[in-house]
Amino acid sequence: MPHQIQHMGSGIFSLGLSKCGQNRHFISRTHIKPRLLPRRIREFHMKFLFFLAQRYLYELDQHLDRFLKSATMAKIKPPFERETIRKILIQTVSASKCRKGSLRYWLSAGPGDFQLSPSGCHQSALYAIVIQNQSPPDYSGIKVVTSSLPIKPPQFAVMKSVNYLPNALSKMEAEEKGAYASIWLDFDGFVAEGPNMNVAFVTKEKELLTPEFDKILSGCTVKRVLALAESLVVNGMLTGIRVDKVTIEEGKAAEEMMLIGSGVLVRSVVEWDEQQIGDGKEGPVAQALRNLILDDMKSGPASVRVPVPY
Ligand SMILES: Cc1ncc(COP(=O)(O)O)c(C=O)c1O
């Protein structure tokens, strides 16, 4: 596909569309010619969707807050104020004309001299890419395995960055074993998270249980799921919601297990380390939570849905 450089205002330079498998990519960046590959990039991604005549970015502000918090932890000063970054991201989606897909963005220390210290990088840079997703969603039950790779230390696990080699290797380990994802345990042996998703369980007592967030990434999706799940407590499907330490035995004995994240939304785990979870089928709570999230994307409050002017 041809590449066209287009000035879109607000420091956005579209590099045109590129085609990659089933997905179309639309890229913008705040430097026209970054001479070097971005170093110390911080990554983030989220989903947006098209609904009726309006299109929305889902949980833009929640993801942006985590992005900026991660930037502070990584000691990168963003090139723009929050509001400008927000506008750039919305404009990028709008310029892409993409109606269904995801937006990923990165913050880099900027073009520099390939040294370890970023002191030779003059100006941080923001990169954004819109990925059109044409594949139909797959919500079938999946298998997971316990990761043999160690989780990142808490200081790095709570931060969204592109230091994702352990995450990539852990995903590859799962695929090599015919599973969808590997589940990390923390350094004390408690259930932690997947390589790009959180985990949650429904206990025998019908409590929704998810690991504490002090040693893992604080997932925007799981946080929203926890809020939406209150309605399942009200209707009696759940007896309560608990954020707590989870042992591997407790997890494997759960009635339901699910992976939760902006990529998978809510997906049932039916087997963990070749041990069946619950009755080996997608559970009713996982199904209900996914429906709640999908409804929230279509008709949730303004705090989670930001309109994109196309
Ligand atoms: C390590 C890790 N945990 C959890 C998540 C889920 O976070 P979110 O719901 O914000 O996508 C992600 C997302 O990429 C992740 O990388």
From TrEMBL:
**InterPro entries, sorted:** Aminotrans_IV, Aminotransferase-like, BCAT-like_C, BCAT-like_N, Class-IV_PLP-Dep_Aminotrnsfr
Q: Where are its TM segments located? A: none
Q: Which GO terms describe its biological process?
A: amino acid biosynthetic process; carboxylic acid biosynthetic process
Q: Name one GO molecular function term.
A: catalytic activity
Q: Which UniProt keywords apply?
A: Pyridoxal phosphate
Report the family membership.
Belongs to the class-IV pyridoxal-phosphate-dependent aminotransferase family.
> What is the official name of this protein in its record?
OLC1v1029010C3
Please report the organism this UniProt entry assigns to the protein.
Oldenlandia corymbosa var. corymbosa
